[in-house]
Amino acid sequence: MKFLICGMGSIGVRHFQNLKHLGFNDISLYSTGNSNYPKIEELTKDIPRYNNLNQALAQNPDVCMITNPTSMHVETAIEAANKGCHLYIEKPLSHNLTNLAELNKIINQKNLITFVTYQFRFHPHIQLLKDLLHNENQYGDAVWAQAEWSEYLPDWHPWEDYKQSYSAKKELGGGVLRTQIHPLNYLEYLFGDIEHLTATTQSTGILDIDVDDIADIQISFKSKINATVHVDYIQKPRVHKLKIVTNKGRFHWNCHLNSLKFINLENKITEFTNENFERNDMFVKMLEEYIDCVNNKTPTSFSIEQASKELSLLLGE
């Protein structure tokens, strides 16, 4: 299988290294040369690189991995899809809905396999929660959930000026509502289709950036479960946690502490271990599943079509 990676920031480098780890070596890069990832030249010194997308696509890759800034995702995807490339595209899918209908039309016409990279669907605790909520009656039926993900933006990539990152710039599709979309997506994974969603954002000015740095989302699922999500760029130390209330108790997940526990109505605590887990495990499992889907011509667990619907709900359009 032949891969083209479009964009060599931190996530492009991660996918590149994971492809190598899985034994794939037929890799080329499309890069404008703006990446400031440390030692990028050393890491990719023997890899074919193109600064023109048409030239890169002329090498006939099977899969195009789209890891450039959010505002460039769809235009890059359309070019790749027109060449018949299967698409592995970073979240968020886009910063708006422009040209998404065209992209989905091409994907359907050419029977392309697509996936939007929500790695937390591959976190062992999130997968376990799905099993426990749907297959283990002893923990009850979920009725309400609350997720919070807060990370201090200047700490994300210490090697770069955070104000110049795609996450912080409006013209690159930044803003915390779109960039920190993971909790919304893993709640959808846990509870099913969303019936209604409202989002509010705030730009505090604390970080001197021109995008929202706080967002709150209210969600009603078709399964009659309600949830709230809070995300922000300004808290330190970081927070990433989830609470799910059932009619028999509640689950508490703390991502950064690698902790999942259930407290029943009698205050009995059950803890679920996740030994030897490393963050990159999610990315590897996600990539392995996608490659299997491409090889077997089967749908992925979260396609560009599904992500388009999610983004439409999020943006209220």
Question: What would your notes on this structure say?
Answer:
With 317 residues, the chain is an alpha/beta fold. The protein contains ten helices and 14 strands. The chain has helices at 10-21, 40-43, 53-57, 73-82, 100-110, 124-135, 176-179, 182-191, 280-296, 304-315, and strands spanning 3-6, 27-30, 49-50, 63-66, 86-90, 114-117, 142-150, 194-202, 214-221, 226-232, 239-246, 249-254, 259-264, 269-272. The strands form two sheets. It has an eight-stranded mixed β-sheet, covered by helices on one side. Strands 3-2-1-4-5-6 form a six-stranded parallel β-sheet, sandwiched between helices. Strand 4, helix 4 (73-82) and strand 5 (86-90) form a beta-alpha-beta unit. Helix 6 (124-135) packs parallel to helix 8 (182-191). The longest helix is centred in the C-terminal third of the chain and has 17 residues, at 280-296. The radius of gyration is 20 Å and the shape is globular. The two termini are 37 Å apart.
Summarize the structure.
This protein is an alpha/beta fold and 317 residues long. The chain has helices at residues 10-21, 40-43, 53-57, 73-82, 100-110, 124-135, 176-179, 182-191, 280-296, 304-315, and strands at residues 3-6, 27-30, 49-50, 63-66, 86-90, 114-117, 142-150, 194-202, 214-221, 226-232, 239-246, 249-254, 259-264, 269-272.
